Amino acid sequence: MWAKALLLLVFVTYVIADDLQQCLQCVQQNQTWCPGTSTCGNTKACQTPITLGDAVQYIDLFILTDLQLSLNCPRLPDPAYAYNETFVRYYITPLVAGVFPSTPEKCLKSQLPYVAFYKTVDVKCATEMPDTYCHCYTAWDKAEKAIIIAFRGTDGSYQMDDEILSFFEHRVPFFDNGHLFKYFHDAFFFLWNGGLEQQVRTLKFQYPDYKFYVSIM
User: Fold this and answer.
1) Which of 2, 33, 90, 178 has the fewest CB neighbours in a 10 Å radius?
2) Whole-angstrom Cα distance, residue 184 to residue 207?
């Protein structure tokens, strides 16, 4: 059983690596790669060709099937950032849980006593709908050498309505390529300008060699 699983893993790794090389060669020639058929240049073979920068086309599962940028070519994740069940279950989960009370201190002291809470940010995060607020907190961990930013996700029906409206009607260009939903773009900058930027700058100045852990729920 284990031998079959290992063989399958090696095969999948080989296929992904081969597809990556072909994809990179394709886009470097200013052509379009279709991951569904592993073909270059013939976009007619894609079920729903989508070109980044053109009008977004939606299908049932919102699948993008056409690649023109090398950064979108299929590739294996960096082993340094591979999924770790223990880390997620016993470290990230308490960080996420900490966004629901007004302050995460009690939660962090109970589950992650070596994580030091810094500050929270609470702002009104939309202009279109009433009573929609965003919340996040910052912390740091000397054991992990990490600066932590934890965002709260959707909170209440008003906020959900605002997000749905933005999902279907509003988007803003990303600085590099593609687009963002306007609601989440604006919400982030309401938090950033509402105190998060200064908190991050202060922590990064105090702990310049620390990495960042960012969570949202």
Assistant:
1) 2
2) 28
pLDDT in tens, 83-106: 899 999 999 999 999 999 989 999
**Considering the entire predicted model, what is its pTM?**
0.69
**Extents of the domains making up the chain:** 1-78, 83-216
Q: pLDDT, tens digit, for every residue of 53-77?
A: 333 333 333 334 444 555 667 667 7
What's the Cα-to-Cα distance from 180 to each of 13, 147, 167, 177, rounded to whole Å? 31, 25, 9, 10
Domain 83-216 - what CATH class?
alpha beta
- Per the CB < 8 A criterion, the answer to whether 149 and 116 are in contact is no
Q: Give the per-residue SS3 of the chain.
A: CHHHHHHHHHHHHHHHHHHHHHHHHHHHCCCCEECCCCEECCHHHCCCCCCECECCCCCCCCCCCCECCHHHCCCCCCHHHCCCHHHHHHHHHHHHHCCCCCCCHHHHHHHCCCEEEEEEEEEECCCCCCCCEEEEEEEEECCCCEEEEEECCCCCHHHHHHHHHHHHHCEEECCCCCEEEHHHHHHHHHHHHHHHHHHHHHHHHHCCCCEEEEEEC
From CA 118, how far away is CA 199, in angstroms rounded?
Answer: 8
